[in-house]
Amino acid sequence: VLLCLCCCSSWLGGLACIFSTSLLFQILVRPCSNGGGLFFCPQSPNAPSILSSKDRTAYHFQPPKNWINDPCGPMYYNGIYHEFYQYNPDGSFNPNTSYNIVWGHSVSTDLVNWITLEPAIEPDTPNDIKGCWSGSATIVSGDQPVIIYTGVIDIEKHQVQNIALPKNRSDPYLREWTKAGNNPVIQSGVPGLNSGQFRDPTTGWIGPDGLWRIAVGAQLNGYGAALLYKSEDFLNWTRVDHPLYSSNASIMFECLDFFAVLPGSNNGLDMSSAIPNGAKHVLKMGMNFGEDVYVIGVYDLKRDAFVPDTDDSRLWPRIDYGNFYASKTFFDSKHGRRIIWAWTTETDSSSDDIAKGWAGIYSFPRTIWLDNDGKRLLQWPVEEIESLRRNEINHQELELKKGDLFEIKGIDTLQADIEIDFELTSIDDADPFNPSWLFDTEKHCQEADASVHGGIGPFGLVILASDNMEEHTVVHFRVYKSQKNYMILMCSDLRRSSLTPGLDTPAYGGFFEFDLEKERKISLRTLIDRSAVESFGGGGRVCIMARVYPVSLVDDDHQPHVYAFNNGSATVRVPHLRAWSMRRAQVSA
Ligand SMILES: *[C@@H]1O[C@H](CO)[C@@H](O)[C@H](O)[C@H]1NC(C)=O
Ligand SMILES: *[C@@H]1O[C@H](CO)[C@@H](O)[C@H](O)[C@H]1NC(C)=O
Ligand SMILES: *[C@@H]1O[C@H](CO)[C@@H](O)[C@H](O)[C@H]1NC(C)=O
Ligand SMILES: *[C@@H]1O[C@H](CO)[C@@H](O)[C@H](O)[C@H]1NC(C)=O
Ligand SMILES: *[C@@H]1O[C@H](CO)[C@@H](O)[C@H](O)[C@H]1NC(C)=O
Questions:
Q1: I need a surface site. Which of 126, 130, 423, 493 has the fewest CB within 10 A?
Q2: pLDDT at 139 over 90
């Protein structure tokens, strides 16, 4: 296939298209369905309008108006959570050549309700005059927040790294930021480095020698690299002569994230302090300009290099298998946890975005930690989300036979949080697993969709369904027996989510391994927020963020339906189903 990858972390590279016919890209890149607009095709400018004020999400983060992309520099400082974001001050369109993307800024005390402030960093020096792109915040010496971000210096999009510091650390909101006098603190000038693909510096971490380190995403000799830099004072940076990691799995790594985790502990680790023995490290890479992939490994302190547990990039899991990119984590010292969130695009047309006046939301903040077996990250919405829950309904001991559809009533089905456990009555009926499915889960989710009866599954939820089911989104599981264990497929199938033509409506999917002999229950949690459907399977082993725009939402009186269903031969039990309506959070004031 010939694909046009329309870049970039800061999305400004929309004009730079990369063509590839390599096998790798065939495996990793999903072509657009319907010519719609996720990452690899530009949004179609003239699709029919599907405009509805009901599409605007009620508790997922977004500023009051305009275009956003990457989350930047999240941090917790003096009792306040800060979120910065790539923001187009001029409107709700992808800021193609307007060059003036800025760091928007919002603050919160609970990660649920947000106050919007003036932008924190804007292009006004020669080191960022063509845009203030993504970056990170680090709290140095316990009390000095420092932002390091990418500046674009000319229309060829040459990139350098700059520092900004709060003007007044006593201002609880840290409203104003001052750029360091010695910017740019890092310039390209490295043999083999493409200075137009050199961006998104990570949060700093401290090595055993007491020096700070950061990694910068880059294209080095044609392949993805995490360039490593060291500093004593966080201002004067020296490049380490080898990258932290590099791989031909992608032509560029952007939006890197590097952090330590302890197997089986859901406490986060602070990268500004010594990392305990037994910890593993995670390198998260934005690959192929649209996929957030992670690899677990060890940080070899002697070589100052990251060594992944597997180099086979085809097996690297995704943080989220849906519409989720440029994710960023931070250590939340208030609760001792690590939090992640990401940018989720609109998948309607760019003309719809201009009419709506807004484009882009963030996934709900999630706690992220390493599973007991050390092989997989788990994610779960931060518990603060529970402050939005109201009108709990619950059901116990339901039985879903093949073909059953159970309607979940009594909640606001446009704004809901649903937690459901599916218990298998027998595991003998599982169909055999074919490992080649791992390389194209979306195709498998299309072929083995909710109407294809299996031994165990499909079972799951039907969401945002119109009265006659013409429109609906299905989140479902299927259970397979592999040689060693059981493999669970989770799909979020958007293909019938809307009657509007021209939307990007794939069937997202991911697999996870599961010890069904020990644990017979597979859990599903889904956050429904108007045009957002965010699902967590198997306790957060596979997560899928999705956007949908059902036509039936346009009708004011219409409440869509939500159902639990089973279309597998084996009966599944639902020992527990709990659901809530969700209040509107303060995300736009
Ligand atoms: C940038 O995008 C805006 C909104 O879609 C459009 O009006 C403008 O023509 C675009 N500029 C270029 C140079 O493509
Ligand atoms: C810094 O912020 C504090 C708290 O808002 C304020 O009292 C103080 O006057 C500010 N200092 C300067 C120099 O603006
Ligand atoms: C920056 O750090 C390097 C390496 O540690 C050192 O040689 C150099 O003198 C420092 N420069 C400044 C201006 O401090
Ligand atoms: C990519 O790297 C892997 C191992 O790291 C190697 O086996 C493979 O040949 C490389 N492919 C290309 C196209 O260089
Ligand atoms: C279950 O399968 C039947 C028959 O294939 C199909 O008509 C129905 O739509 C399926 N249920 C769901 C929720 O997809």
A1: 126
A2: yes
Nearest CA owner, ligand 5 atom 7: 451
Q: What is the pTM assigned to this prediction?
A: 0.92
* CB neighbour burial string for 36-63, b if at least 16 within 10 angstroms, e if fewer: bbbbbbbbbeebeebebebbbbbbbbbb
Phi, then psi, of 355 in degrees rounded to 5 = -70, -40
Instruction: Return the pLDDT at 97.
Output: 60
Ligand nearest to the CA of 223: 4
Tokens 């599982």: give the residue. 430
Per the rule left: phi > 0, alpha: psi between -120 and 50, beta: everything else, 336 is left
**Rounded-to-integer distance, Cα 261 and Cα 453, Å:** 39
Map out the domains of the chain with their CATH numbers: 13-40+389-588 (2.60.120.560), 56-381 (2.115.10.20)
Are 164 and 180 in contact, with CB atoms under 8 Å apart? Answer: yes
Structure tokens at 63: 């500023």
Q: What value, to the nearest 5°, has the Cα angle with vertex 88 and ends 367 and 97? A: 125
pLDDT category, 288, cuts 50, 70, 90? confident
> Mean of the per-residue pLDDT values for the chain?
90
Q: For residue range 291-302, list pLDDT tens digits in order.
A: 999 999 999 999
Which pLDDT score is estimated for 555?
66
Q: Which one-letter amino acid corresponds to residue 45?
A: P
Nearest CA to ligand 2 atom 11: 168
Residue nearest to atom 9 of ligand 3 (CA): 236
How many CB atoms lie under 10 A from the CB of residue 405? 14
What is the distance in A from the centroid of ligand 3 to the CA of 240?
Answer: 14
Q: Residue 11: is its pLDDT beyond 90?
A: no
Closest CA to 508 of 370, 350, 365, 324: 324
pLDDT at 9 over 50: no
Q: Which ligand is nearest to the CA of 14?
A: 1
Count Cβ atoms below 10 Å from residue 374 Cβ, excluding itself.
Answer: 14
Residue 26: predicted pLDDT: 30
pLDDT, residue 557, reads 72
Does 17 score more than 70 pLDDT? no
CA of 278: how far to CAs of 267, 272, 299, 541, in Å?
A: 14, 17, 11, 22
Measured between alpha carbons, how far is residue 352 from residues 8, 52, 116, 498, 585 in Å? 22, 10, 24, 15, 24
Mean pLDDT for 481-496 is 96
Q: Which ligand is nearest to the CA of 178?
A: 2
Residue of 78, 168, 178 best suited for mutating to test ligand 2, as the one with most atoms within 8 Å of CB: 168
Q: Render pLDDT for 150-160 as a digit per residue (tens, 0 to 9).
A: 999 999 999 99
Q: Which residue has the tokens 């159902």?
A: 563
Ligand 5: atom nearest CA of 462 is 13
Q: Cα–Cα distance between 279 and 539 in angstroms, integer?
A: 22
Q: Which residue is closest in CA terms to ligand 4's atom 13?
A: 248
pLDDT digits (tens, 9 = 90+) for 411-423: 999 999 999 999 9
- Is there an atom of ligand 5 within 6 Å of 451 CB? yes
What is the structure's pLDDT at 556? 65
pLDDT score recorded for residue 502: 87
Q: What own/partner pairs with CB < 8 Å and gap ≥ 24 does 85-90 have?
A: 85/362, 86/10, 86/11, 86/133, 86/134, 86/343, 87/63, 87/119, 89/119, 90/66
